[in-house]
Structures are given as C-alpha cells and as structure tokens.
Amino acid sequence: MSGYMNERFRALDPTAGFRLGDLRSPGALADGLRNSIIGQDDAVDAVVRAMTIAAVGLRDPRRPIASLLLVGPTGVGKTELARQVARHVRGDADNMCRIDMNSLAQEHYAASLSGAPPGYAGSKEQFSLFDRETVEGTVSRPGIVLFDEVEKAHPTVLRALLQILDTGTLRLASGTSTIDFRNAIILLTSNLGSREVHDMRRPGARGPAQWAASVMRRMSGRGARSERDVVLDAVRDFFDPELLNRFDEVVTFTSLDDAHARRVVDAEIDHLVEALAARGVRATVTDAARSTLVDAGFDPRYGARALHRVIRAELHAPIAALLTAADGQCSTHLIADADATGLMVTASPALVLPPD
C-alpha cells in the first residue's frame, strides 16, 4: 500500500466525533426523510448512506463529516432535504448555518465569507457569515452548513469552498482565527441542468438541431439520456475537477410528476387539518378539491413551489377569512370542495357572525 494511503487509513478514527449512536438508526432516518421529501427516494438513500459511513467512523477526521452536492431541477426538495437533515441531527430544521450563495455573486460581497483582511475596517472583529457555534457543533450535535444555490456564487467563494472541503477549516482573512468544519455536515444545493431537463421533458419545445441529435442517439443504439445524465453533465461543465472531486457524493434529484404533486397536496392538507383541529375546528377537503389544487398549481418546471402558493391562495386564505369573520365563534366543520367553477370553502353549519 502506498505511503499516501497508509496515511489516510491511519487518520481514520472510529472514535472521533460524530457517531451513529448520536442519531436515530439509519432505517428510521431514511423513513423520516422519505416522509418529508416526496419522490426522491434515491436522493434520500444517498444522503443516509453518506451519513452512515461517517457515523461508524469510516471518515477522514481531517475533513468535514460529509460533503454532499444536492443537484437537480428547481422545487424538488433539495433545500428541504437539508432542513430535514438538520431536524434529525440537531432537533430543529432551522438549526443550521445557511449561506445564500446568490447574495455572494459579486466579488466585494464574496469577501464577507471569510471577513475583512488585516488593515481593513472590521478585521479586528473577526466577522464572518458563518455562525461558529452552529458550524462547529458538539460531539452529539454536529454542525450543519448549507450553501444554497452554489452555482450563483462568485469564483472567489468556490475557492474558499475548496479549502473548507479539503482541510476542514477556513482561516479568516484577519489571519488571527480559524473556523473548524471538521465536525460539520456540508450540504450544497444547485439547480444546474434544470433548463436542459425541462427541454428534455418537452420535446416539442426543442429546436431542430436538438431533435435531430436525439434521433441520432436513438439510431446509434445509445438511447435517450436520463435526467441524471443531463444534470451530471451540467455539473461537470460548471465545476473544476479539483472542487468536484472534494464532494463525498453528488446526489441527483429528479423532476416531480402528477402523482408526486398529489402526495405533496395531501401532506400539506394533513398539516392544515391538524392545525385546525388544535383550534377545535374540524376540516374536510374532498378529493375533488385536492385534484383541483394539483391541476391549478402543479407545473413540472417549478416543482412543488407553485403548489404551495396555490394551496395558500385557494385554501388557507378563504379558511382564514371565514375564521376571522366568525371572530372566534367558528363552525365546528369547514368543508373544501370543488366543481366546474373552482374550489370553494364553506362552513357547516353556517358561521354565527358577531352582532354589528
């Protein structure tokens, strides 16, 4: 075995930091994530696999616990998966350090990742966008760091990422302090390949050259490319090999379909019904109403995001209006139904409005 490999294996310490016992079992973790992330079982399995490998000690303690690039079309659950990992690991879906990479598109903003260099205003304050406590975590509560929409960041930021993924540390520009990422799970999201996937799913929208290329591939026996192939090609085109090779795994997400959209609607309605029940209000949402919400709100180009907006506008808003009009004297049963004219929410029996 080479000296390099001997060094790497000596560095593996099964007793270091993050342990499987600090989490729920892999099976329970996978089930919990699948219940929250609809239609992405392969992606969930990949994340659980990477975390399990790290948790049993088969990791290099000189690097982050795991570094995963979550990539695929918009609105399919990439950021939500990161939030659910935080919920299972740290007990709260928002208990993580989240960096919106879109805000670091300009070079002068990108510098805020590691703070101001010596001699510049703010250098003594050791300012950084990273919350040190959340990043470094504890033995039983490792840090979670989310770099959202990484492809929108300035190249300077990508160079800082290379340092984090390679050494598990980031030296602040002041030169007097270092943030330690070796006890953190690093998650990065990207929409790379989204446009190409959309074009692939709508052949009629493609130009003659693209259509001809598709025909030639089929005639040559290569067959049609999968969504995963398209996304991974976009990832390879964007990232330098030096950075791409630092990810423990590239986790691909796929487009949602109508069946997935219906599951999203059902899950949202379940949460709504539970919230109303806690207020003593019974609610029924018919199958017709659910189908109407899917038809009105689902567009494969935007994933589940448009669904959430339609549910808010067509269901939450009228229910809120009824409850507000009742001034606390609400009906015990709200019914959401739909016909050819659209979705409607009624109260049974009728709400008793307060006197003028």
Biggest β-sheet strands, sense, barrel: 5 strands, parallel
Output the CATH class name of the largest domain: Alpha Beta
**Helix percentage:** 40-55%
CATH superfamily of the largest domain: P-loop containing nucleotide triphosphate hydrolases
Uncertain segments are: 1-16, 116-124, 205-209, 214-223
InterPro entries: AAA+_ATPase, ATPase_AAA_core, Clp_ATPase_C, ClpA/B, ClpA_ClpB, P-loop_NTPase
Domain AAA+ ATPase: 64-257
Pfam families: AAA_2, ClpB_D2-small
Domain Clp ATPase C-terminal: 256-345
Q: Which short descriptors sum up this protein?
A:
five-stranded parallel β-sheet, disordered N terminus, Helicase, Ruva Protein, domain 3, 45% helix, 356 residues, Rossmann fold, alpha/beta, 14% strand, nucleotide-binding
Structure description:
GO terms for molecular function: ATP binding; ATP hydrolysis activity. Residues 64-257 form the AAA+ ATPase domain. A hairpin with a 2-residue loop joins strand 9 and strand 10 (342-347). This protein has two domains: 3-195 and 224-252, P-loop containing nucleotide triphosphate hydrolases (Rossmann fold), CATH 3.40.50.300; 258-347, Helicase, Ruva Protein, domain 3 (Orthogonal Bundle). The chain contains 14 helices and ten strands. A five-stranded parallel β-sheet has the order 2-3-6-1-7, sandwiched between helices. Strands 8-9-10 form a three-stranded mixed β-sheet. Strands 4-5 form a two-stranded antiparallel ribbon. It is globular, with a radius of gyration of 24 Å. The chain has helices at residues 3-11, 26-36, 41-55, 78-90, 107-110, 132-136, 155-167, 194-201, 208-219, 227-238, 241-244, 258-278, 287-297, 305-326, and strands at 66-71, 97-100, 143-148, 169-171, 178-180, 184-190, 249-252, 282-285, 333-339, 342-347. It is an alpha/beta fold and 356 residues long. It starts with a helix and ends in a 9-residue tail after the last strand. Mean pLDDT is 81; it is low at 1-16, 116-124, 205-209 and 214-223.
